[in-house]
Amino acid sequence: MNKQYYLAIIFISIALILTGCASGISQQARSQITYFGPFNSVQIQPDKYTNQIVMWGGRIIETLNRNDSTEIVILQMELDSFWFAATSSRTQPSIAKGR
């Protein structure tokens, strides 16, 4: 096969890979977010954040399967410009537990 064919295959492959890495959160959903702060602020004053739409990022560090639920432990991390948990966070990480 010729060189142009291989270049086209490589280009299409890269485009598909980059599309797969796109954020799964729509612009419409992101525009509704009213709080980006740390989880521990909500833990301290939960009433202050009632009816807020929050956006938190992090890494799942543990899952615990219970008889009636699953508990997920998340290490909260700052989000990068692509809405993913940043690999190096400037903020103090906190542990969030939820069911």
Total domain modules = 1
What is the chain-wise order of helices and strands?
HHHEEE
Largest sheet: 3 strands, antiparallel
- Strands, count: 3
Overall, the morphology is elongated
Radius of gyration: 19 Å
Count the helices. How many? 3
Structural class by sheet pairing and helices:
alpha+beta
Mean pLDDT: 75
Low-confidence stretches: none
With strands numbered from the N-terminus, the spatial order across the biggest sheet is: 1-2-3
- Please estimate the helix content: 25-40%
Instruction: Give the termini separation.
Output: 55 Å
Question: Any descriptors?
Answer:
three-stranded antiparallel sheet; 3 strands; alpha+beta; 99 residues
In short:
This protein is of the alpha+beta class and 99 residues long. The chain has helices at 3-20, 27-31, 39-44, and strands spanning 57-65, 70-77, 95-98.
What does this structure look like?
The chain has helices at residues 3-20, 27-31, 39-44, and strands at residues 57-65, 70-77, 95-98. By secondary structure, the chain is an alpha+beta fold. It has one domain (3-98). The model has no long low-confidence stretch (mean pLDDT 75).
